[in-house]
Design a protein that fits this description.
The complex is a heterodimer of chains A (538) and B (454). Chain A has helices at 2-21, 52-56, 265-268, 353-358, 492-498, and strands at residues 38-50, 63-65, 71-84, 94-102, 112-122, 131-148, 155-165, 172-178, 187-194, 199-201, 211-221, 231-250, 255-263, 274-277, 282-290, 296-308, 311-316, 327-330, 342-346, 363-372, 382-385, 389-399, 401-414, 423-434, 438-447, 453-456, 462-465, 482-490, 503-512, 518-519, 526-537. By secondary structure, chain A is mainly beta. In chain A, the strands form five sheets. In chain A, strands 4, 5, 6, 7, 8, 9, 10, 11, 12 and 21 form a ten-stranded antiparallel sheet that branches. In chain A, strands 14, 23, 25, 26, 27, 29 and 30 form a seven-stranded antiparallel sheet that branches. Chain A has a five-stranded antiparallel sheet with strand order 2-3-22-15-19. With 454 residues, chain B is mainly β. Chain B has one domain (3-282, 319-436): Porin (Beta Barrel). Chain B has a 22-stranded mixed sheet that branches. Chain B starts with a strand and ends in an 18-residue tail after the last strand. Classes of the chains: A mainly beta (538), B mainly beta (454). At the A-B interface, α1, β1 and β31 of A face β5, α3 and β24 of B.
Chain lengths: 538, 454
């Protein structure tokens, strides 16, 4: 029996020992070290149909569609030369001291006397020769200070100013100042009058321009005080912060200078000037509106196109032909059209604006002098409202029609790969199907902190987008699209080098096939697909 | 109302107990088994306690030693070699809260209340390969790959069983269990089929489809703190999730030395209707091709957009719709075929073939068992099993009996206790019973065996 047990038990124990003896590792999770598994993942990143609007991200509304569907770049809403009512002169702050003596006759006690005293003064204006016929005031203060040495128990100075018409009554400004002064000596009375709503009226036919008349009457009675005639009456007139809502008269020959700049950012990025626009593709549009009732001559004293950046290229732009002054009069509304604007459209067919764009102008600087009443007719009747303005809109319209032999764009972007140790290989695929008649070549150079190139993506600048074939004139429409598959391979060593890179120098060149004329239409697009196959270490 | 019908749960105890009919828990595997006593009851809560864990690979299979040094590395090829087409991690807990039985002549009646918890995460080898090698690997690049069978199944239920067995002519015993099940909570992944195709051309567009159906019946609100929520369930909450089932078994003794047995157990189902949520694919099997982001929607006015249309589209396409339709799950049935050779009074050899009918396939396992009785005091058994594509399953167990007290502790994978790195499976099964009385006839009395030649 014991032998039988051994026969059964021994093999069983041997089996246990055998299975356990094969084990040479312990259940020790801490001894498991990091693995270097490398999986390769293929991921589609981008699939987009890109129109010109998408590519340039036209947030400022530059891109427009012409009548024939051609893409037209309109650079406006920037070169606005504006003269507003605040630019025109009016009545500056001023102080007018007027002084007159008057005699009070000898009076029996209680006997009345009315002694008129008239004051005249000229209201000064910002612009010499300016004539104010009438002005509706919407701001300003008139401080009226009266001083006198009249020694009467009971006396009042009645003041009337016919040039200032009150808003409610429509009558001349009229008020009384109590100057009763039984003890004698000089007294002072101060009156502050808000001018808002008053109308300032001058009548040139009865005197000099802008002459202000202040009529006063001294009312008094006989009393026991001694008569010290002649008495002294001094008026201090302080006008401050005067402004108008409407003003009629003659504004003189003021000259207002304004400056502005038209930015053509789309062209400023071009590093070279290798493109030519087709005939009639560029237009300088000059639309001016004027709501002043004043003849105005605009003189464009400077119109310079600059390439921008460090490129010193510049060009003087003329409007009406070389050596022809860029000055022109603009229309203005008549009395019958107060509050309206007169529009002036300037013909610039003889301008050299196309030459300015072809130097890849990044900006155009403008200086414009506005001459009021250029004829100098002082009898002219001008008017201005507080909302009046001259608004000169200089717009450059560029139809995308021309040939491009190298529209070169260079840009630099910061780059830091960081600690992407997990990526051991990278294959970037660009699959472009281009409906534009333009080829794009590109180079990406990764440079380190001292601008040494650590990696060049395309050893020879490679076309990543091929131009679509172009049909005959005059439409120059593409007849199909051109596919192009580009692959960028980065090995582990190259990725290691990229870790040293701090910037990417991007050079992109845009050109039309054989420098032929092409047109870019609004319905063109490019289908761009980007995918990546990336090796990742776990 | 839609009634889903599916499989989701296991319910099992150790294989070793099949060879120990004197242990009342053996009737769990074959209802014709019952102890050789007139009456028994089990220690409440400790009558039969089972914990089991299964993994698709062992620690040894997962790791390799570096050529230099003592450290280990996880080699992905080794991992994939260890995986089958379908793989799973599972954890099971089965405990009998109360069990008792008594004999009436040749009839034996048993009652039991048990609680089962089972969780299983399944995944296919292809999915692991995709994760380890990526979709640009030659196995997937330009080829259509299907991934199915990934999912989580989890359940907890109470089992109320009435057992009956009858001995016929001293040779044949027939038995059955009639069961009422009460479901506590359930997560059932009915379907989780995915298709992935990565185009080799252009920018590698990816086409995918999904067909997902997941059913839950629980108060679990999210997966973030699921364990805490599960542990928050009361030990003995009863629900409106009712289920029924039965087991069938027979034990045939053509001679005193030989017995043959067979059973099919866990023919059970539960209708889940309390707090039910069904997560069903909105576009099942419908293919979607992702060719990349549209930069126009990605970048708006020079800045990155907060929302990207394509992501919304993808989310919508692969989204899940939530319904609240009751569904039926059933416990994995198991078929046991066993034989015992009582070749001496104290020694027995046994063979057991167990087949698990799971949702994926029939999973057979084989166990060879030796049992030795050291008198009436102690019974020791040792066995060897081939389970779950693993050969290192040596089990040991003992049954200690002192008077009416019976204590047993069993294990199908004892190697896991000593060398856990070699084991894919871990389990332990123990309990404490009280047995009283002897049957009128000693059915286990064996003739003295004398080997020939001695």
């Amino acid at each position: 029996m014991i032998k039988l047990k051994l026969i059964i038990l021994v093999p069983l124990l041997l089996l246990i020992l055998f299975t356990t003896s094969c084990i040479d590792k312990q259940l020790d999770f801490d001894s498991i070290k990091t693995q270097n598994w490398s999986a390769e993942w293929a991921i589609p990143l981008i699939n987009s149909q890109l129109t010109l609007d998408d590519i340039v991200k036209d947030s400022s509304g530059i891109i427009h569609e012409g009548e024939d569907g051609l893409v037209v770049l309109v650079f406006d809403n920037q070169g606005k030369i504006t003269f507003s009512a605040s630019d025109l002169g009016f009545i500056p702050d001023q102080q007018k001291l007027l002084d007159e003596d008057f005699i009070v006759p000898d009076l029996l006690p209680g006997e009345p006397a009315d002694i008129p005293v008239e004051f005249l003064t000229i209201i000064e204006t910002d612009e010499p020769g300016m004539r104010i016929d009438s002005c509706f005031l919407n701001a300003g203060e008139y401080e009226f200070i009266l001083r006198t040495d009249l020694n009467k128990d009971n006396a009042v100075v009645e003041v009337t100013i016919p040039n200032l018409v009150e808003p409610v009554t429509g009558t001349s400004l009229h008020f009384n100042v109590d100057v009763s002064n039984p003890s004698g000596g000089e007294i002072e009375r101060d009156t502050l009058i808000p001018m808002t709503g008053f109308t300032l009226v001058f009548d040139e036919t009865t005197g000099p321009a802008n002459e202000l008349t202040i009529n006063t009457i001294v009312h008094t009675f006989g009393d026991e005080n001694s008569n010290n005639s002649p008495y002294h009456l001094e008026l201090e007139n302080n006008f401050t912060a005067m402004d108008y809502s409407r003003c009629f008269g003659y504004f003189g020959q003021q000259v207002i200078t304004k400056k502005d700049t038209i930015y053509l950012n789309m062209f400023s990025v071009n590093d070279q000037n290798n493109f030519t626009f087709g005939p009639g593709s560029i237009d300088l549009r000059l639309d001016i509106s004027n709501s002043f009732g004043i003849p105005v001559l605009l003189d464009v004293t400077q119109f310079t196109a600059y390439h921008g950046g460090e490129n010193p290229d510049s060009l003087e732009v003329y409007l009406f032909g070389e050596d022809v002054p860029s000055a022109f009069e603009i229309d203005y509304p008549s009395y019958d059209h107060i509050g309206e604007s007169a529009i002036t459209v300037v013909n610039t067919n003889n301008s050299n604006i196309n030459e300015a764009v072809e130097i890849s102008a990044g900006k155009m600087c403008l200086t414009v002098d506005g001459h009021l009443n250029p004829a100098g007719d002082t009898t002219a009747n001008n008017f201005a409202l507080d909302s009046s303005m001259v608004d000169a809109d200089f717009a450059v319209e560029v139809g995308l029609f021309g040939s491009v032999s190298g529209f070169k764009v260079i840009d630099t972007v910061d780059f830091n790969l960081g600690s992407m140790d997990e990526i051991n290989s990278l294959l970037l695929v660009l699959d472009a199907e281009n409906g534009y008649p333009l080829t794009v070549s590109m180079q990406l150079e990764f440079v380190d902190s001292i601008y040494q190139v650590v990696h060049t993506v395309f050893p020879d600048s490679e076309n990543i987008i091929e131009a679509a074939p172009v049909g005959p004139s005059p439409e120059y429409r593409v007849t199909g699209s051109s596919p192009k598959l580009t692959q960028v391979v980065l090995s582990r060593d190259e990725i290691e080098k990229l870790k040293e890179a701090r910037q990417i120098l991007i050079t992109a060149m845009l050109y039309s096939t054989n420098n032929d004329l092409v047109k870019v239409y609004m319905d063109y697009y490019v289908n761009m697909k980007v995918g990546v196959k990336v090796g990742i270490d776990y | 109302m839609v009634i889903f019908w599916g499989i989701s749960v296991q319910s099992q105890v150790s294989r070793s107990v099949y060879f120990l009919e004197q242990v009342p828990a053996s009737s769990i595997l074959n209802p014709s088994f019952h102890p050789t006593c007139n009456f028994y009851f089990d220690m409440p809560l400790l009558s039969s306690f089972y914990l089991g864990y299964e993994s698709p690979f062992t620690f040894d299979e997962l790791t390799k030693k570096w050529e230099t040094g003592d450290s280990l590395n996880i080699d992905r090829e080794t991992v994939l070699d260890a995986l089958g087409k379908r793989n799973y991690f599972s954890f099971e807990h089965y405990t009998t809260l109360l069990r008792a039985g008594f004999r009436v002549k040749n009839h034996f009646i048993q009652l039991s209340i048990s609680k089962a918890f089972s969780t299983k995460f399944s995944f296919g080898k292809d999915l692991a390969t995709l994760f380890l090698y990526g979709n640009a690997d030659e196995r997937f690049f330009g080829k259509e790959a299907s991934f199915s069978g990934t999912g989580l199944n989890m359940t907890s239920f109470h089992e109320f069983a009435l057992g009956y067995s009858v001995e016929i002519a001293n040779k044949l015993t027939l038995g059955t269990h009639l069961k009422y099940l009460n479901g506590n909570f359930n997560i059932w992944t009915e379907k989780s089929d995915f298709m992935l195709y990565t185009d080799e051309g252009s920018n590698f567009p990816v086409t995918a489809s999904s067909d997902i159906a997941i059913h839950t019946s629980s108060t679990i609100s999210s997966f973030n703190n699921m364990i805490r929520q599960i542990s928050g369930y009361s030990w003995f909450d009863l629900s409106q999730n009712h289920g029924y089932g039965f087991d069938l078994g027979l034990d045939f003794e053509p001679s005193r030395q030989l017995s043959l047995s067979a059973s099919i157990v866990d023919l059970c189902w539960i209708k889940w209707q309390e707090n039910v949520k069904n997560y069903i694919s909105i576009n099942p099997g419908s293919r979607f091709t992702f060719e990349g982001f549209d930069v126009n929607s990605f970048i708006s006015n020079g800045t990155f957009s907060d929302t990207v249309d394509i992501l919304d589209t993808i989310t919508s396409h692969f989204g899940l719709e939530t319904t609240h339709d009751p569904y039926i799950s059933h416990v994995n049935p198991k078929l046991y075929l066993g034989g015992m050779w009582h070749f001496t009074r104290s020694n027995e050899l046994g063979l057991l073939v167990r087949s698990d009918f799971t949702e994926e396939k029939v999973k057979p396992s084989i166990t060879l068992n030796f049992t030795h009785n050291f008198g009436k005091l102690l019974t020791v058994n040792a066995n060897y099993s081939f389970i779950n594509r693993n050969y290192y399953n040596v089990g040991l167990g003992f049954v200690f009996r002192l008077g009416p007290v019976q204590l047993f502790a069993l294990n199908d994978m004892v190697i896991a206790l000593f060398e856990p790195q070699k084991a894919r499976n871990y389990n332990i099964h123990f309990g404490l019973n009280f047995l009283f009385g002897k049957p009128a006839r000693n059915m286990l009395e064996m003739p003295t065996y004398t080997p020939s030649g001695n």
